What we know:
- Helices cover 63% and strands 2% of the residues.
- The protein has 457 residues and is mostly helical.
- It has a two-stranded antiparallel sheet with strand order 1-2.
Amino acid sequence: MSDDEEKEDKDTITAEKEALNLKLPPIMYPSEDIGTDSPLQSKLLKFRRTKDQAKRLNQIVTVGAIKKHVRVSEEKKKRSLRAPEPKYPSTMYSDLRRRGENYIFMKKCVESHPIVPIQREWLDNMLELVPQSLKNGREREQLVENLLNEVTTEFERSMKRYLVQSVLVRPPVSWLEDEGGRLLESPLGLDYSKPWHSSYLQARNQISENLHVLHPTLRTLLDLGYTTFANRLLLDLTGFRAKGPMDCESLRNDVSINARKTEEKLMNTWYPKVIHIFTKKEAHDDIKAEKLDSFYNCVSTLMSNQLRDLLKRTVEGFVDLFDPNDRKWLPIFKMELTFDDEKMDFYPTFQDLQEVVGGVVDWIGETLKNVQTVQSWLAGGPTTVKLSTDLPDHILNGAFHTLREAVNLNLQGPKEHFNEYVEKYSWLINGTAVDQIQTFQAEDHTFDEYTEYLHRI
């Protein structure tokens, strides 16, 4: 046997001895609480893979939704920061569209005005009309409160509608929203349904160039007219009543004399001051030569308006003398009961009195017809141009109608007295009584019948 084989045998024996020397692990007996569940065992037994996957899926969806929301919000902010859309050019922007958008803007401005809320007293008065049995109960009290809130809301909405429709005129644009029908037959306010800025500038330029209303000379003329005519009338209307009973001829003379005196006084005081204003060098130095006619036309219009206003106030003052509710200054007319050609009548007649009273208005309107224009006076030509002081027809017609009604009303008493007198005694005057007496005498009657007939007469 070789040395190598002996070495391998020794190693094998040594390994077997070491294997015999190894000990087995101790025997572990089971614990006493082997039948109870531990926390780890409970968690393991309750674990469900489907629930865990659903939870993870929900988390993924939630995170994705949040990311998408953030992304959309950022995109929305970026879109809001974009420049506004360009407006249509003027050639493509229709007049109806401009009027519609202007109306919407003006409507928002009007609706922003504060509205006076409905008064609580009104709501209480409404509730008093509701029977008490319908208001008792917890649910009914809440219902009543809801109804009152609804009434308050409708009141505010109606007030806004009324405010809008009474201030603005809705333009004929089909795409404007319906506002619930019209509240008024005709709007009370101005028509702001059409853009006004350009027309305002155009009108202002025309006024500056043609009307000259802001010129210092015209302002001086306006102040002079206000000082002269503000507290003046063409007639002393308080003097008619003070004169007592007067006839129609006296009324004609008084009106004619007083009107002429006032006219002469104005022509000797007011008119020279007007001429003096325009004879100054600085009166129209800043007016271009081609605008002088327009300037003096404006002067003539202003003077005509001042004189026309004087006549208008005089006519209105004379009409007020016949106010049935205030007879303090009512004129007293003298009338006579006459008998002519077997006919009784008043002198002057009722129709004549109406014509005389109405004629006062004509005499007032015929005054101040010979006032010369400033330009004509300065020119000094052979022909003169007079100011127009004619009163409008509606003022004259209204005055005639009012005076006619007032005269008829104030003559009701004399008319009734006249009719009663004629009814009682006209048969004695027109010969009817004589014929009846002669016929009665021709007949055969007793003394008692004669006595009864005399008593009847």
